[in-house]
Amino acid sequence: MTTVEPAARTGALVDGFGRVATDLRVSLTDRCNLRCTYCMPEEGLDWLPKPDLLTDEEIVRLVDIAVTRLGVTEVRFTGGEPLMRRGFVGIVEQVAALEPRPKLSVTTNGLGLVKLAAPLKAAGLDRVNVSLDTLDPERFRTLTRRDRHHDVVAGMAAAADAGLTPVKVNAVLMRGVNDDEAPALLAWCLERGYELRFIEQMPLDAQHGWSRDKMVTAEEILRDLAAAFRLEPEGSDARGSAPAERWLVDGGPGRVGVIGTVTRPFCGACDRTRLTADGQIRNCLFAREESDLRAALRGGAADEEIADRWRAAMATKKAGAGIDDPTFLQPVRPMSAIGG
Length: 340
What we know:
32% of the residues lie in helices and 16% in strands. The chain has helices at residues 4-9, 56-69, 88-96, 113-123, 137-144, 149-162, 182-192, 218-226, 236-239, 294-298, 303-315, 335-338, and strands at 13-14, 20-21, 23-27, 74-78, 103-108, 127-131, 168-171, 195-199, 231-233, 245-249, 255-259, 272-275, 280-282, 291-292.
């Protein structure tokens, strides 16, 4: 008997290597109100046609199937920029009412949080991840092609005030752009009680301009942090299936994480499944294949049939992302269309 069979009998999302997916990433839109240089071109992209996008009701139904039939316990809403989805608060409210109730979070650029933090908390959202790559407003304008740094900072404060905690901050460092800011970003987050995560730049830009020599590695980030702070590794037991390696800073309680997707892959403990805004299942952020649930949904398929299709898709998941493989090819879809 293999390790897969016991979990499979429970109806869980199990792949061929025995990994069980309990963390669902749901992309609500491919649209964004920033134009970050490492994500999309200044003129933007051709957005998905509205008829192709899942409706609010379809999103809630698929999340319901994932939670009640497939064992998903955590749901993260992503994009594009998920706060641009008009029905987002209502989606959160309906998902929060599911039994068993999943943990609910969102990854956002923070621009809409001043207005939406309190309503999202009231609807049932547990916490937020906010992207912020620099403390310098002018650098922010250069990186994002928008003068909105103050809005992101205000959005983080609004999230903390609303109780969407811990507020986690995602930062991507780029060589020659903001790679000198690691210690300052950490000090800024520690002062405010935010949890900082540095993320290695990944080959998911729409321009396909990513190059390894421009990427600031996890090792470099840790070297710069260690020059300014005392770091104590939390260890693999504390990390679990989380992508971030975490360190206590100056004895704690503050922490910092580093997600080394490229140089320190964590595929062996992956527990994620992804649903795109147009109803496609992706087993990996870097996958080049997708499985269509939208067609089944709109074709009248019953919940258990959709669940079976999801299980079949998960069974084909590869052992790893393969970024270090010489044959690696960047996904056709950019990050904004996949969901983070």
